[in-house]
Design a protein that fits this description.
Layout (H helix, E strand, L loop, with lengths): L2 H18 L10 H6 L4 H8 L4 E5 L2 E15 L2 E5 L2 E7 L2 E13 L5 E8 L10 H7 L2
Length: about 140
């Protein structure tokens, strides 16, 4: 092997070693993943409370977290007839909101992915409740 071949092989080996140490977080699909992928799991649990369970998954750990319990009253919606209340379109109701996510955490305690397990629509049909509660935090 000539000198040029050894340099090329050395550079390839160095690149392979460098890439082997990398752990990616994947592409964020929502505000929760955008906010928390790549962050310390301790920051998440300090802000929102401890997980309810954990499961080993190879070298990673999957933590299940539940929280954000909130009661929301949604008023009735009426048809408008000449500026006055008309026929009822939807009744008033009470919604019980909560969020449940599974965090995949690497051995160095970095969040690698966030999977939403339980969620509800956000206010006025906006983003999900989990995105409102966890994403903007």
């Amino acid at each position: 092997m000539n000198f040029r071949g050894m340099i090329k092989a050395g550079a390839t080996l160095a690149l392979a070693v460098a890439l082997a140490g990398c752990t990616t977080t994947g592409i964020a699909k929502n505000d929760v993943e955008t906010r928390w992928n790549g962050q310390q799991a301790g920051m998440f649990f300090a802000k929102f409370g401890p997980p309810v369970s954990d499961t080993a998954a190879g070298r990673s750990t999957i933590y299940t977290w539940r929280g954000g319990h909130k009661t929301r009253v949604v008023p009735a919606v009426y048809e408008q007839v000449d500026g006055k209340k008309g026929k009822i379109i939807s009744k008033a109701r009470t919604e019980y909101l909560r969020c449940e996510v599974q965090l995949t955490v690497s051995p160095d305690y970095i969040i690698r992915s966030v999977r939403t397990v339980v969620d509800r629509p956000g206010i006025n049909g906006g983003q999900s409740y989990c995105e409102e509660f966890l994403g903007g935090a």
